[in-house]
């Protein structure tokens, strides 16, 4: 993954942020929208692209374009920095390979302990029965 190349491929759009804010919010485009086309990216290998398609499929649209918004601050430049850092975090998490789970055996001591407790319970129940009459 070539981060510099990927960041250079990002497209940004500044739009007006919604919500409360008075007169100033209606004049300034401080919200930043990031667009990243996964299919046309040259900073990712084919294997990485395929892994990302599977891992972040819920965040991609039908054309495999990732769209992120940021309107946390009143500064467009700060919002751009925040959305880039969030984007890189999503990519890093999407490219992580999870370890395969290896099932473990039940230890012999645990099996022995369980069998002993079952035997103890069985003895307890059998001792409650009436004794057999001897002829």
List the main descriptive attributes of the protein structure presented here.
Pep_chain_release_fac_I_sf, EC 3.1.1.29, 135 residues, peptidyl-tRNA hydrolase activity, three-stranded antiparallel β-sheet, Double Stranded RNA Binding Domain, alpha+beta, hydrolase
**Outline:** elongated
The proportion of strand residues reads 5-15%
Structural class: alpha+beta
**Strand order, largest beta sheet:** 1-2-3
Please tally the helical runs, counting DSSP H or I stretches of 4 or more residues.
Answer: 4
Count of individual beta strands? 3
Distance between the termini: 88 Å
The SSE string, one letter per element, is HEEHEHH
- What percent of residues adopt helix (DSSP H or I)? 40-55%
CATH class label of the domain at 3-95? Alpha Beta
Q: What Rg, in angstroms, do the CA atoms define?
A: 31 Å
CATH architecture type of the domain at 3-95: 2-Layer Sandwich
The quaternary state of the protein chains shown equals: single chain
**Fold-level CATH name of the domain at 3-95:** Double Stranded RNA Binding Domain
What are the low-pLDDT stretches, counting only 5+ consecutive residues below 50?
none
Q: Characterize the largest beta sheet: strand count, sense, and whether it forms a barrel.
A: 3 strands, antiparallel
Describe, in short, the structure shown.
The chain is α+β, with helices and mostly antiparallel strands and 135 residues long. 41% of the residues lie in helices and 13% in strands.
């Amino acid at each position: 993954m070539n981060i510099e190349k990927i960041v250079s491929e990002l497209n940004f759009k500044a739009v007006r942020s919604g919500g409360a804010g008075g007169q100033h919010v209606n004049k300034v485009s401080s919200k930043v929208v990031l667009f990243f086309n996964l299919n046309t990216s040259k900073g990712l290998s084919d294997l990485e692209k395929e892994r990302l398609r599977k891992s972040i499929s819920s965040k991609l649209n039908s054309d495999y374009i990732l769209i992120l918004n940021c309107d946390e601050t009143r500064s467009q430049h700060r919002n751009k920095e925040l959305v880039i850092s969030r984007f890189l975090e999503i990519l890093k998490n999407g490219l992580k390979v999870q370890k395969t789970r290896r099932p473990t055996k039940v230890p012999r001591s645990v099996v022995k302990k369980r069998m002993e407790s079952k035997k103890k319970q069985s003895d307890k129940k059998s001792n409650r029965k009436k004794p057999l009459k001897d002829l």
